[in-house]
Amino acid sequence: MDFSEVSTLTAEADELLGKLLEEALGLLRNFDTSSPETLEETIRRREEILERFLKLEGRIAILEERAKGDELNRLKALRESRAVLAGRIQETDSLVIALAREQLSVIKGDLAALTQGRRALYAYEGRPSGRSHTVNDSA
């Protein structure tokens, strides 16, 4: 096995994980100010990076199966360092998900308050058209 090939692949995988971490941290930093379009673009970029990373991981796994002795130990160490980085990405993503759930909860509360306010307004002022609709009105 050519360990330089493995080193190149693992370096590429590490670089892609670094990009994923940058994207995750950027999303966390800008979550409150990002537009839906910006969030969609970020997610699209992350999906592309992840697809490339998973392809590399597949190639590395094949090489790991062929590795023996020192080479196998080095590959395992490299895999463990990537696992640590992947863990940081997951932690950051968990924070973003928590923020999104919190924001969704606030939005649901705001919508409920608006609905209640609209009902109160209708109670005081009547229906928006100025009169109520009944079955007899349409006959």
Textual characterization of the structure:
The chain is mainly α and 139 residues long. It contains 4 helices and no strands. It has a domain at 3-92. It has helices spanning 3-30, 36-66, 69-125, 135-138. Helix 1 runs antiparallel to helix 2 (36-66) and helix 1 (3-30) runs parallel beside helix 3. The radius of gyration is 27 Å and the shape is rod-shaped. The N and C termini lie far apart (85 Å). The model has no long low-confidence stretch (mean pLDDT 84). It comes from Geobacter benzoatilyticus. This is Flagellar biosynthesis protein FlgN.
Short note summarizing the structure:
The chain is mainly alpha-helical and 139 residues long. The chain contains four helices and no strands. The chain has a domain of 90 residues.
